[in-house]
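Regression test case RT-17, inverse folding.

Input:
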């Protein structure tokens, strides 16, 4: 079997790359370890920057997102019994973000690839990548009980943080940067109407909490918890009690709506970057190359930004024979990645409870929140990073 670009992973990065390549007349095969149902139901990110929305629209896969996505022009920060709105529209000249679940983006991309006759292989087992330091890379895998080999011009490693592509690069040819946080997020999806339109990021003495949503009927909520948290210790009652306490039912009557909990999960928090994001004819993109803690809502947006650059590089190569896009791919992406690493780390540090912090550190954290919510310059900095104004 042969193709031009072999793609490992059918998350947002791999599917979007396959779709953009198809629009440039470049063939690809996507190999995914999980089932279609699993990837379509995997609940993760929810906040799309305008650049992500624009790319999905330009690529012709934005119709349902335009209908069902919720446009947000601000967020609320709650801390020390106070409540402060960061007005993105006012601070950034009208910009905002769109709340639309990552799994909906994945569903839209899968439907489009299949409608265009795309080759997506779900439940591909034992995927391994070979000979990408030469001109004829190969991907070996098992599919429906048969061993297969896919020969390709290039391999795109879009297989997430726990994938096989990054570890296949000789360890002395890449450098990784890593930071593990001493907490995780317990996330729930609840069948409850959102109690307000905008997201709430809360810093509370018990730990961070985040109020978000997916639709007019579904609320998405997160609680800071221990990294080794045992979900069985979190009954629905305990979760709601912690959410009410940390988000703080307000004197003006605001109160978090409750409803049946549809899904619970624990997400560890990590910052991670691989440099460079290319080795020979293997390119890493998205979570395969970098991870951010979710506080800044940047992970999927960074994956999409990588793919925009990578798809352009492939287009220039196949149309014009130019390898310049390949040479600059890593550097171009890393500039944005490090900016967003800084922002995600900063949001995480400002909003979470750190058990090992001194009283001094805790006062400095509150002073930071006070500054961000009272200085226009500081609010503007948060707003422009959150909506993702950075161009290349
Ligand atoms: P993934 O989505 O991880 O896709 C990789 C794919 O590769 C998967 O389908 C996996 O099954 C497959 N795979 C893995 N190994 C193999 C293998 N060996 N062979 C074949 N296939 C393989 N980001 C935002 O932008 N905004 C947010 O609001 C946000 N919130 C988040 C909240 C949570 C709780 C979490 C967990 C993440 C959040 N993120 C957010 C981050 C975002 O979900 C990720 O950054 C995004 O999924 C990255 O996409 P990807 O395609 O690179 O990787
Ligand atoms: C959501 C996730 C995030 O990480 C974030 O910062 C905001 C919202 C969400 O899942 O809705």
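Golden output:
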């Amino acid at each position: 079997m042969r193709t031009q670009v072999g793609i490992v992973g059918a998350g947002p990065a791999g599917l979007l790359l396959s779709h953009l390549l198809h629009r440039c007349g470049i063939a690809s095969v996507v190999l995914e370890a999980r089932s279609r149902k699993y990837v379509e139901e995997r609940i993760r990110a929810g906040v799309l920057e305008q650049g992500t929305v624009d790319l999905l629209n330009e690529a012709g896969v934005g119709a349902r997102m335009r209908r069902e996505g919720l446009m947000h022009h601000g967020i609320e920060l709650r801390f020390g019994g106070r409540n402060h709105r960061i007005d993105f529209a006012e601070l950034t000249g009208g910009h905002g973000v769109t709340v639309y679940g990552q799994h909906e983006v994945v569903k839209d991309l899968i439907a489009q690839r299949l409608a265009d006759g795309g080759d997506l292989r779900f439940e591909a087992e034992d995927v391994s990548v070979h000979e990408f330091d030469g001109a004829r890379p190969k991907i070996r895998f098992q599919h429906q009980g048969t061993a297969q080999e896919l020969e390709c011009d290039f391999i795109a490693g879009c297989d997430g943080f726990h994938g096989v592509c990054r570890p296949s690069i000789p360890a002395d040819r890449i450098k990784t940067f890593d930071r593990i946080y001493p907490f995780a997020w317990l996330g729930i999806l609840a069948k409850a109407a959102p109690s307000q339109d905008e997201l709430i990021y809360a810093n509370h003495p018990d730990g961070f909490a985040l109020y978000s949503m997916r639709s007019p009927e579904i609320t998405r909520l997160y609680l800071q918890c221990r990294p080794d948290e045992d979900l069985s210790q979190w009954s629905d009652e305990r979760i709601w009690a912690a959410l009410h306490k940390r988000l703080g039912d307000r004197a003006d009557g605001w109160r978090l709506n409750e409803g049946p909990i549809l899904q619970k999960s624990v997400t560890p928090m990590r910052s991670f970057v691989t440099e460079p994001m290319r080795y020979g004819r293997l390119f890493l993109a998205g979570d395969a190359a970098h991870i951010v803690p979710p506080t800044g809502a940047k992970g999927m947006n960074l994956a999409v930004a990588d793919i925009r650059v990578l798809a352009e590089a492939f287009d220039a190569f196949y149309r014009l024979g130019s390898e310049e896009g390949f040479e600059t791919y890593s550097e171009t992406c890393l500039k944005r990645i490090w900016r967003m690493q800084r922002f995600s780390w900063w949001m995480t540090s400002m909003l979470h409870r750190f058990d090992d912090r001194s009283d001094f550190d805790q006062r400095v954290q509150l002073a930071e929140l006070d500054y961000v919510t009272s200085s226009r310059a500081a609010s503007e900095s948060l707003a422009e990073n959150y909506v993702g104004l950075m161009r290349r």
